[in-house]
Amino acid sequence: MAQAKEAAARKLPGSLETNRRLDRWLKINSDGTVTVTPGKVEIGQGILTALVQMVAEELDIDVARIRLAPATTAYSPDEGITSGSRSIQESGLALRHAAAEARGLLLELAARKLGVTLEQLTVTDGIVSARSGGSVPYWELATPDLLARESTVDVSAKMPAEHVVVGTSLSRVDIPGKVTGKPSYVQDMKLPGTLHGRVSRPPGPRARLKSIDTRDVEQMPGVVAVVRDGSFLGVVAEREEQAIRAERRLARIAEWTQGEALPNNDPRNLLQLKAETEVISEKGDVSAQGARQFNAEYTKPYIAHASLAPSCAVAQWVEGKLRIWTHSQGIYPLRGDMAQVLGLPESDIVITHAEGAGCYGHNAADDVTLDAALLARAVLGKPVRLQWMREDEFGWEPFSSPMVMRMNAALDDRGNIVNWGHELWSHAHSTRPGGKGGVNLLAAWHLEKPFSAAKPGNPPLPGGGSHRNAIPLYEFPNQKVTNHLIRESPLRTSALRALGGFANAFAIECFMDELAEAAGADPVEFRLRHLKDARAKAVIEKVGKMANWKSNEKGDGERGRGIGFARYKNLAAYIAVIAEVRVEEEVRVTRLWGAVDVGQAINPDGVRNQIEGGMIQSASMALKERIDFDSVGVTTRTWNEYPIMTFVEAPEIEVALINRPEAPPVGAGEGTQGPVAAAIGNAIYNALGARLRDMPFTRDRIVAALSA
Amino acid sequence: MALTLQVNGKSRSVQADAETPLLYALRNDLGLVGSRFGCGTGLCGACMVIIDGKPVQSCDVPVSAVVGKQITTVEALGSDDALHPLQQAFIDEQAAQCGYCASGILMAAKALLDANPDPDDAAIRIALEGNLCRCGTHGRILRAIKNAAKTMRGI
Predict the structure, then answer these.
(1) Contact A422, A472 (CB under 8 A)
(2) Nearest CA in chain B to A648
């Protein structure tokens, strides 16, 4: 026990534990700059700006001195995947520690040089000064091997009260370039001699290429190569529009087998499939009856990441080695899978991150990277840029799994919950590259010698995958939570913002409102009475104040308001949301209020931006979004068929941060998803007296609920 | 074939088929990558440019159809030394997350403000009907456009 404690105490913070060399993270340059090389990547969430702040803070340098290097397998620390709102905890805390340690090393050198003790020294923007006079800048002190050492535990970063850069809303480092049209994305990369690729996909996931005669296509203007490997079919051309035209011809002339029919796409179809069942929480007497029993069933459909930019990558083979530029969230796991498919040692593949559009989870970023490498292999030496078409992205990205949540509860005669049950059915929420025993890249499954996918699964609890946020934060004397994982899915499923937490928190929070009503209680008061966690109570009380919530407020048949709450993953951000809706032809979300506690906010405006964005995206998913498929494949292929929230529909949003500089910083990106959907569902009930338990809350469903 | 386009106030020659979408001519021939591909069917606005004063989705306009017309892209909205008030307002409001939609939205907003220097909230929202933002930065973008309009009116 004592040994285990000691081992834990020796652990380095965040990703430093597994990437211990300081020079993997930082370099003090003689030209007065500091290069920072995080392994986490920018996906539109503003993480790089927050990391710059954390480094500038510990080194006592101006943020303008920091140069960010893109994450690359050539030199960056392996930080796995940028996901799960973990970048502040993993990359941020590692860099904070590494920068503090670098500062300590620099001060030791300065003390020696200036002939004073450490206590005599102060640092201002990298200039170390002795109280007795004399100064020397970092840039003169730093030797090339200064950081060529492993990090040690005995380093103290600054106390929150000493922070001057952390906790301020530093402007995002990337926005000026983006609003002036500078090359900002992998989509904008242009290497000399770049050729353009496109891939022709099967009509559905079970279809395979029967026959094709590519001779005509090879003669089309600009076509450099047509690539066929099993059912993988693509083209490389000199110009982008030539590649697109050639791909369209390929699509017209290819003959595909359809394969076994896909099942219908009702989420409740999950209930019929073979599941692995696991009780993930059980306490007290799970058969406790109480005075009254309640149950309800909620669902969500397949939904898409629907990045604004179809995924893109650039690949180039040079003397048997492969160079890749990609917006993958995990360059190292991707390299592992790519090496298997291409039959190369990992050391022959260099993958460098280049930004894409916001991805919100595992979209097609990795898949398009293998596609580009396969096409580039046909034109050795030439860089091939491949951007999927919009139809490819909707048709082939990994979707967020449909889910069914069956809830039951018992109330005692005082209206308290005395028993709680939550059963959920879902496919896997994590099928990223790097899985064991297979390759998680689309094209790999279509090759002449196909690879099989790794067994689909979930990240483990406490974070969890389909069972994320399924265990309630509320305190119930008796409860049982059961996860039914259905690994085989008709369409590929993987991580989308909050994973199963989106639907689980939606179900929990709607069911809490149903129970509050049965208990004759106000939804806010009812939540507070079932919570012990002070930070949870604080965000609920705060959002109630912000929205001027009235106890037992009633809607008027058209307008209504509702609340939702969750602590993301039960271990990260606390978020409470109130939604106001107006139900006319469709449901309009008119206002959203959010109260948020992410512990120490490194960049408060960055947190707000993430929260506001999460709120709008979640509202969009709850109201509008669903991927449809027929017996062959996905039928949702354009923005017309997959509408998202527009500028005309976007609600007014008010966000308040409860800043806790003394509490560890946690991510902000995903926590709003469930609370917003629940708040909207509850607001619709408040307005209409009709309960919608199936997302999305479309007009047809409102009509059906009203006539039920 | 060789086509001559009027882009950002200059005559530019492009070697492309008549039906090549303007977007690819801008991005791949002229190096103006600020206009971005999002859907190819005029449904998302990531590729929006201004043609003879009107906001147009450049992904589904053939290059031959814009010969002789004045094309303005985000690269000519302002300069690095003198940002357009819209660009400055986007920075001031931190009105971007991934930013992929930003240049198209800036061009739609410029076309709006050129035609109507004092639009109300509803007019701005309607002007952005053809632009999607997936990150959910709508509120900041609307605020930024209102602020830019004020700056341009000298308020």
Answers:
(1) yes
(2) B125
